[in-house]
Amino acid sequence: MRILLVGLVLFLFVSFFVVWFGAFNVAATKQHSKLALWVISIVRDRSIAVRAAASPPEPSLADAQRIKTGFRSYHTMCTVCHSAPGRQPSPVRQGLNPKPPRLQSKEVQRRSNAELYWIIQHGMRMTGMPAFGPTHSTEKIWNLVAFIRELPKLSPQQYKAMVKAEGLSDEMADADADQGESVMAP
Ligand code: HEC
Fold first, then answer.
1. Ligand 1 neighbours by CB, cut-off 6 Å
2. Measured CA distances, 150 to 105, 167, 180 (Å)
3. Residue 181 reports pLDDT greater than 70
4. pLDDT (tens digit, 9 = 90+) per residue, 49-102?
């Protein structure tokens, strides 16, 4: 019992000094260890899989109007972090840790529609992925899921053509970074 108590006091003492002297580096430029990344990915995937069961019933996603509306939302709200076919990575994307995955990638496309819905609705704490539920209707979030399913089929030219057809701006919101000049060129 005494050993346990001494151990606990010692642990609290050491923890206090680790925190107080800033031994933990919170910099986004510092990568997590491989072990930490592995643990985080399991915690994340299980958390999403269990909670996604409560996502609202799925409407028909193969609907041209729905996909188009989803594209508009995606282009204005998501490309700064997740990029898009043929698009250069923005400074925001390049500076984020964890790096936002490209949503056309296999790792993202393997998720169920309910999981994608849940992620967009609730976001992911401590990653930079915002929750769009507080600002967007169920319909709008399903529109985004519908468009994400179309993303892998789009070539850079097709994506560009959609931006033009919808009269959206192709300008990077943050295209003024010193480091980014070379990659920002059209
Ligand atoms: C400020 C940056 C930022 C914005 C804006 C953003 N995201 Fe994310 N998103 C992230 C980050 C970072 C992750 C990775 C989290 C992690 O490591 O698991 C992520 C993860 C995701 C994932 C899960 C990928 C996977 O399978 O692990 C989806 C789906 C997603 N975002 C969709 C969207 C959509 C749709 C939008 C726009 C409506 C959006 N995001 C806007 C930063 C962002």
1. 44, 73, 77-78, 80-82, 96, 98, 100-101, 103, 107-108, 111, 116, 119-120, 124, 127-130, 132, 144
2. 12, 20, 29
3. no
4. 999 999 999 999 999 999 999 999 999 999 999 999 999 899 999 999 999 999
Name the one residue in this structure whose structure tokens are 């508009």.
Answer: 72
pLDDT tens track for 142-156: 999 999 999 999 999
Which residue has the least CA distance to atom 14 on ligand 1? 100
Of 152, 157, 153, give the one whose Cα is nearest residue 170: 157
Q: Ligand 1, from 31, 87, 111, 129: best to mutate by most atoms within 8 Å of Cβ?
A: 129
Contact 85, 156 (CB under 8 A): yes
Give the residue, by CA position, lying nearest to ligand 1 atom 22: 119
**Rounded CA gap, 36 and 56, in Å?**
32
Comparison of pLDDT for 154 and 177, the residue scoring more: 154
- What separation in Å is there between the alpha carbon of 12 and the centre of ligand 1? 36
From its phi and psi, is residue 69 left (phi > 0), alpha (psi between -120 and 50) or beta?
alpha
